[in-house]
Amino acid sequence: MSETLPRAAVGACLDAMPRHAPATRRRGGVIDESAPVQTALVAAAVGILALLVVLPLLAVFTEALRRGVGHYLESFADADTQAAIRLTLMVAGIAVPLNLVFGLAAAWAITKFEFVGKSLLVTLIDVPFSVSPVVSGLVFVLLFGAQGVFGEWLAAHDVQIVFAVPGLVLATVFVTVPFVARELIPLMQEQGTSEEEAALTLGASGLRTFLSVTLPNVKWALLYGVLLCNARAMGEFGAVSVVSGHVRGLTNTMPLHVEILYNEYNFVAAFAVASLLAGLALVTLVAKSILEWRGGDQLERSRRI
Amino acid sequence: MAISSNGHAASEASGTVAIRTEGLAKAFGATAALAGVDLAVEAGELVALLGPSGSGKTTLLRVVAGLEQPTGGRIFFGGEDATFVPVQARRVGFVFQSYALFKHMTVAENIAYGLRVRPRRARPPRDAIRRRVGELLDLVQLAGLERRFPSQLSGGQRQRVALARALAVEPKVLLLDEPFGALDAQVRRDLRRWLRELHDRTGHTTLFVTHDQDEALELADRVAIMHRGRIEQVGTPDEIYDHPATAFVAGFVGDAVRLPAAAEAAGLRVGAHMIPSPVVAANGTRRDDGPAVLFVRPHDLVPVADHVHGIAVEIAAVRRAGSGHRAEVMLGHGLPPVDVVLPAGRTARRGDRIRVAFANLRVFPA
Ligand SMILES: Nc1ncnc2c1ncn2[C@@H]1O[C@H](COP(=O)(O)OP(=O)(O)OP(=O)(O)O)[C@@H](O)[C@H]1O
Ligand SMILES: [Mg+2]
Known about the structure:
The structure holds two protein chains of two kinds. Chain A is mostly helical. Chain A contains 14 helices and no strands. Chain B has two domains: about 15-250, P-loop containing nucleotide triphosphate hydrolases (Rossmann fold, 3-Layer(aba) Sandwich), CATH 3.40.50.300; about 255-365, CATH 2.40.50.140. The interface of A and B includes residues 198, 199, 201 and 213 of A. Bound molecules: adenosine-5'-triphosphate and magnesium ion. Adenosine-5'-triphosphate (ATP) binds near residues 28, 51, 53, 54 and 59 of chain B.
């Protein structure tokens, strides 16, 4: 793998150049003459990115380490902090597999079958992207809260959803629904059904066809979707904040815990937890790049990248 | 042994018919892709399905394969009703127009797939599979390419891998959807000949779809002409070409020009000309009086030397065509021009007047 990365990276660069070159040349006169404008635009982009992305990221780590590594590490000894980390891992650990299965099933159904209400399903998958996460959280409170639609029934049966872990999982699943499905649908649409049909005519069962033909064909896109889904599941604040109830050590996920610590002027601890989330983001970025390199071959063959 | 008729016509030697469809119908919503197809393919036969785009060729092939469920009618494989047999159990070899090779598998893995997915009881041992793959690679002339991925093959090579993969499961019938559709003319011609040889060698019952009539006429034992979800005519290439059964077939096969005509007591009126009844009777089928259509192919009209017989026409244009020349003539005002093949070594000029006679008359009621 260490061997393929640089080569793939170089390949990607070489790949990108000729595609843009002719267009640049065609309008070349204009662009050559306005080199200063070009420089200004690039500088602006880099500047804005530095100001809005790099600087805050650096600030997180600086603040976290302001009173030394000892203090930084000490923050993680706190029981509530550890509980928050465990809870975040657990919620993501439940939400991501659920959405993996749902995303695969939805993409499979949408791209390989004809059925009524198909376009409605496609639209519904996008709802979590278009609705504010806070609203999503509120919906769950309205449904499952004490005064909610199912509130009485739930209370009677001693089931606690809102202000408890099930609520957190529900809210997280809801906001991360689109990631896997959206990644798979265009790819599977592009690939059509003929490979599956070929497998069937060769005698393969439906399950065998799915495992040996469909899945390998979407492997990289699936991993990519899972990665994005996971990043969002761990980082989600809005929806989770509404359904959490902020019970320390019980229903506080990492993002919520950061806010509480910050509001308590416990800056080092707040930024220490925040640095974990920032670290997660960096790891995600690296993993994403690796996936793009490794899976580029497959994704390219399906003409997606 | 008193087992008697189970519906087979006495003349039909049952057992030699590999595929038979009865009133096969398939509707997609309001479109009837198949509107009652009756077709019998004999064992070992190579039959071409020929027809214009949208006539239902692919649909017929998919229904026969079991990839599509018919909305009416029945399918028999070797006398057994296979209408509701699932696709996996039909043992058909299907070659898709786009080949549909498994992108993430090597050539060898692609070919072995159908054997590998068999239930353990029926699965050949590993080296038997390897041997079989080797044999098939030799058969399709791709030995040495077994480790390649489909993306590393040319179109013609992919085509042959698809064929080898379909043959690996020893199918009862081979179904090919425009097997040469995506290839350029030269490769097409080579592969066409190669497929015919392969068929003669292996003897698989084969049904293949094409919309290239040269391909169908050259390659097939019999040709079935499809039109609007129905089969218009089934016959040998000669029968189809020389004796089209319907106006559609006459217009579709060969470079026929369609001319409006009128059948009258005295003969056939075409534009300003009257072809006398005896000539019509001698060269074609006499139709009932009334509006008719006449189909004229380049060799149907021949120049005649004498000044009495035939129709006097003026040459509108002369073109070189292969070894000789072709003249374009008009049989009447407002009618499309028709081609006349000039005898070898003879040419003519625009505006020349010649006399032509019909060597063949294909007339159908309008
Ligand atoms: N899945 C489908 N859904 C709806 N209509 C379809 C479907 N498949 C085929 N049809 C329709 O059925 C008719 C026959 O289609 P078919 O693909 O069998 O034609 P064809 O003879 O193979 O044409 P071509 O030469 O263009 O491949 C067409 O009118 C087509 O639009
Ligand atoms: Mg077709």
